[in-house]
Fold these 2 entries.
Entry 1:
Amino acid sequence: MSNDYERFSHIEVAGNAILPLVRAITVDALTKALLNKVGLSDIQPSQFYPLSSHLTLLADVDRRMPTVLKRAGEFIASEALFPPEIQTFEHFLAAINTVYLLQHRGYEEGEIGQYKFSKESDTVFIMVDDIPYPCRFDEGMYLGFAKRFGVGISLEHQGDSCRRKGDKQCSFRIELK
Ligand SMILES: [Zn+2]
């Protein structure tokens, strides 16, 4: 995947969307050099930061420490706040796109991609997304939220298309167990 995130430099992302990654990196005792390199030290949850810096950091972590990226997705799940109407894992999957968009500002419609939720059956959900974040982050997030809502899932990155290879989108098949 190209790291040309300059095209996102006018868009900002909320600090509370960055903090789980910061925490996951710290847990793994990697030096803070990675954070400093992109100017993301001392993140405040209610502030906004350049999305291009956040994406550069994510791509860096994805390359060096893929398991950390997955863990960051899981941290998001354990700490995220969401509206009371979201009471099940399925509600959550259907609402991810709204939550994702709320964490960013300054973008034009369609510019930062989206999550699309669909159902194959009552127990099989398909999530397709074309957001600029790495798909390992999605993977961790789906696993983490399943845990948070107390459901067992099997998760499969399906099809050949993958953003890691520079494709436009990734698709996950999530089956409740
Ligand atoms: Zn992928």
Entry 2:
Amino acid sequence: MTDYTVKKLASLAGVSVRTLHYYDKLGILKPRYRPENGYRHYDEASIIRLKQIMFFRELGFSLDEIVKIISSPDFDIIEALKIHREELVKKSERLRELVSTVDKTIKNLRGEDKMQLTTDLPLPLFVRGKVRDTYDLGKHLLIIATDRLSAFDVVLPCGIPDKGKVLNQISAYWFDQTKHIVPNHVIELVDDVKVLDKYLPAAERFAYPQYLAGRSMVVKKVQRLPIECVVRGYLAGSAWSEYKKSGTAFGIPLPKGMLESQELPQPLFTPTTKADEGHDMPINLAEVKKLVGNDIGEAVKAKSLAIYNFARQQAITKGIIIADTKFEFGLENGKLIVIDEMLTPDSSRFWDVKLYKIGQSQPSYDKQPVRDWLERSGWNKEPPAPMLPDEVIASTSRIYRTAYERLTGKQLK
Ligand SMILES: Nc1ncnc2c1ncn2[C@@H]1O[C@H](COP(=O)(O)OP(=O)(O)O)[C@@H](O)[C@H]1O
Ligand SMILES: [Mg+2]
């Protein structure tokens, strides 16, 4: 049997000799023996007992309680543990809150938590869309993705933290991934706001706001084709409505007996006009060709389908179905390039592979919690929309970040 002097046990357990003396006096940790006028001696059983005492101390038991636990056999130890457990749960919740307050404070001090709902740069505005603000840099455009969110075609009064960064960086990711299929308008991402100096004459430079970093890109300004190149891989939305009535989608006959959200035998190119005002109208390939010419008409169709096929095959392996999407093209010295945004949740229908069920409409990967909440709120879908509760905002922000991380395998910058 190993023998421990009081000093040895104290140093092993990290308590003071005085504490051990005191525990002896209380009768909760008796030494195995104590020679007359000599040091107390302990054994392995004492170590186990001491561990129990320290465990109860750490849980917040008083020494009185510990005396009872150890010396009165009818003390209800389970009941006592339950009470302390409850206290612990409360404490851990409080600690979790503290940790997230610390995280928020760090973000706040670094200026990273600021949502960017509007921009007001001393530059000519090219266009202010529902979500993005685009400024004219002469030969270039500066496209800024804000944290604005629209649902049911209405811009909400509150934003979604990080959404703009996610949109900008998802777009950038796909532009890069598909540049072998068709060149695009990207010149560079604004990771560091200083790069903007390159695009402005000295007299027009200004103190670029930090929020531009990560959420904006400089692109070539080109002549835009007056069409929206929609590609659909699944039977949803207006294609499903039409199919139910006539068995066609945008006039294209489809197999009989297809179900809502079913994958189409092959992706369809279903272009629309790009109306400056009012609604975009579906047009067929012949009409596209009338607007942009035969060769460019054929090319936008082939390129749209090629980019979509490439991207959806990649996305599905990462758990995201890109059900349909919209591209825009422009001409750079007569050559076709893809512009605007690319394969973001704003320009596409994203579905979660795990939630996909044929024969019904699919929850939107990114906007479903917002839509569900708005539906439940009883809002009549006329502006202004109500404020979203904090938890809906927080979970939507998380969804956008995960979409980015899943698709690109990278952390958001
Ligand atoms: N490289 C580019 N050159 C010229 N116009 C572009 C380029 N990239 C995008 N655009 C145009 O900028 C506009 C951006 O508007 P957007 O933010 O999408 O607003 P909306 O909500 O009205 O669609 C679109 O009309 C798009 O065609
Ligand atoms: Mg747009």
